């Protein structure tokens, strides 16, 4: 099945990963026309989300993140 997800938030990306793992062809659409770099914002992950991204999505979180106190 082809699935379109509108919004590249954590929820949208998680849904995309889960649907892809279930065998669906997934496209994610984000409306931001510019890269979202150096915006001064952050995203926190709970341990379960961290483990999922490390193992199932093959993303090395440690290479693209910083730990906070």
In words, what does this structure look like?
The chain has 69 residues and is α+β, with helices and mostly antiparallel strands. It has one domain. It contains two helices and two strands; from the N terminus they run βαβα. Strands 1-2 form a two-stranded parallel ribbon. β1, α1 and β2 form a beta-alpha-beta unit. The radius of gyration is 13 Å and the shape is flat. The termini are far apart.
Based on the model shown, name its key terms.
single chain; 69 residues; alpha+beta; 2 helices; 30% helix
What characteristic shape results from the CA principal axes? flat
Question: Which stretches are poorly predicted, pLDDT < 50 over at least 5 residues?
Answer: none
Determine the number of helices (DSSP H or I, runs of at least 4 residues).
Answer: 2
Span between termini: 42 Å
Number of separate strands: 2
Q: Name the helicity range.
A: 25-40%
- Oligomer kind: single chain
The strand order across the widest sheet is 1-2
Biggest sheet character: 2 strands, parallel
Write the layout of secondary structure elements.
Layout lengths: L1 E5 L3 H12 L3 E5 L17 H9 L14
Parallel strand pairs: 1-2
């Amino acid at each position: 099945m082809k699935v379109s997800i509108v919004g590249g938030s954590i929820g949208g990306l998680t849904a995309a990963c889960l649907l892809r793992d279930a065998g669906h062809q997934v496209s994610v659409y984000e409306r931001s026309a510019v890269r979202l770099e150096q915006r001064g914002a952050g995203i926190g992950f709970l341990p379960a989300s961290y483990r999922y991204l490390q193992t199932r999505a093959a993303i090395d979180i440690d290479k693209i993140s910083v730990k906070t106190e």
